[in-house]
Structure formats: structure tokens, C-alpha cells
Amino acid sequence: MKYGVIFRILLASWISTALFACQQSDEGEIRTCKVQFDLSLEAQTRAPQEIDFNEYTVYLYVFDAETSLYVQTFTITSSIFTVTGLEKNTAYRGVFLAIPKGQQPDLPSFADMYETSTMQYLAGNQTGQEVFRNILNFSTNNELTSYNIVLTRQNGAIQIRMSNADGSIRNVRLETEGLPIMFFHDGTGGKVLSEGTPVQLSKSEIPPLTDNYRISINLLPTEDLTGKGRLTLTLVDGTETVYDLKSTSGSIPIYPNQITWLVLRGTGDGGNFEVGFGGDIDLDDDEWDGYR
After folding, report:
1. What band does 48 get if pLDDT is binned at 50, 70 and 90?
2. Max mean pLDDT range (87-91, 252-256, 268-272, 277-281)
């Protein structure tokens, strides 16, 4: 007999509670297994907000936990949704993926084996890509069980900080490379696993008059960006100054859900940047303070 799982998403991004149990008919027959998720989003106000499914695409990929075989993909489009076709007393693994609506490439509509399933994060010069994930192991049974789940941003970002208080900089161009493919499964300690031929990324801006100018590119995590990019400043007199990406710390790692920033103290000749890290997306950066 097949069993269903009912999911209820109340609030999103991603702290959640899941409840599941199997219901019985009057004759004692197990008919339906239910799973309920309560998700919340910490926005800039740090107050929980309901997920807007007009803004985010959310998929659930279900795998058999013992065999790693792919079972089915479910598109989550409302706060309450029902999953059917799951066997009672069976262990499953669910992978939740979410991206902003309209971001390309889309999330895949189906998957492979759990260990080999991937999603495409980059398909070209895309500097603002985001992806959120949570992996949940659950079983269909008669017990009512609760889970606390956190869906977190899997990408990080490289950010350059500098002053343009005197207006001497006419244009800023940041170039680096990023890996294009992320695995569904994670590594030891939740490590984000990625692969593929690096994609060359470039972002140009006209900086405003400010002593705290920032330019960023979102990336999947990587151990070190040293020598894999550069910053080009075009001054008002037309001259260009190029800085290779390197730091006084010896490496420039990108971590999930964090911003790695390099501080350029001057616009003249120089060598290394100073490197720093945001403890999480809520630390010292208004754009990533919360979700957006």
C-alpha cells in the first residue's frame, strides 16, 4: 500500500519545525502519513515573514535513504502541500532547494542517485546567483516527531571595500571565477560540494561618492581565490590601476552563507588587500542583512 506525506509550510527561509505521523481509519488501517513543516524567514527586521511563492521557487527532492534511489520531485507552491506515493515504515532523505524566482538556470525537475545529483548554479556571467538548501532524513511511521530545520544560503560572496570619497574613481571592475555546479548532498560538516569548469565572472560599476564603497560577486564556496581574479580601477583622468586578488592573510576562501571582504586602503600602487570575513549574512553588510 502506498502512503502520503502532507507538508505544511507556514513561513519560509528558513528555520522550520517538521511534524509527521500516520493516520488510522476507524478499522485501525494506516491510511495516510503526514509531515508538517513550520518555516520562518529572518529578514532585515529579524521578524518571521511568510514565504512569497511569487518570489521564490522551492523544490523538494525525495530519495530512498537506504538505496539512494531518486523517488520524486515536488514543487512547493503553497503553504500546505501533500506528498503521496511514499511507503510506510520507510526511511527517506529529502533535499530542499530554493532559488529566487526568475533566476536561471532553473532548479532541475528531476534527480539522479542521491550522491550524484547536482544543480547548475552558473550558466554564464551571473554575479548575483543565490541558492538555499536543507537536507532532512525522515521516515513514514506512526510516531509524531518534530524537527528543527534551517535552510541556509549555500553560496558565499567575494566583496571589495574601498573609499571613493574624493571622487577620483570613475569605474570599478571586479573579475573572478566561480564553479558552476553544486551537488545535492553535502560533505563532512555540511561542506558545500561543487564541480565543473570555472566560469569567468565580471562586474562593473560606477562608484558613488562615499568612503565605504563595496562591490560583490556571489560564488559557490571555494578554498582560495588567490590569483583567480583582479580589480581594475579606472580613474577620472582615464588611467587604470589593476590589483590581482591576493591578501595579507595568505588565502581568500569563500564560505557558505558568508561574505569574504578585501579592503583596499588606497588607490595608488600596492600589493595585497587586507582580508576579512562576515561571521554570517547578518554581520556588517546591509545587503545580506537577513535575506536580501
Report:
1. very low
2. 252-256
Neighbours of 257 (CB within 10 A): 19
d(CA 85, CA 83): 7
CA distance 70 to 288: 34
Which 3 state secondary structure label does DSSP give 190? helix
Give the pLDDT confidence score for residue 122 in this predicted structure. Answer: 98
C-alpha cell at 18: 517538521
Cα 176 to Cα 229: distance, rounded to the nearest angstrom: 4
- By residue count, the chain amounts to 292
Percent composition of the chain: helix, strand, coil (DSSP 3-state, to 5): 0, 50, 50
Half-sphere exposure of 168 (CA within 13 A, CB side): 12
CA–CA dist 52, 58 (Å, integer): 10
d(CA 288, CA 129): 13
Comparing CA positions, the residue from 92, 93, 116, 120 lying closest to residue 105 is: 120
Joined grid coordinates for residue 158:
567575494
pLDDT 10s digits, 218-243: 999 999 999 999 999 999 999 999 99
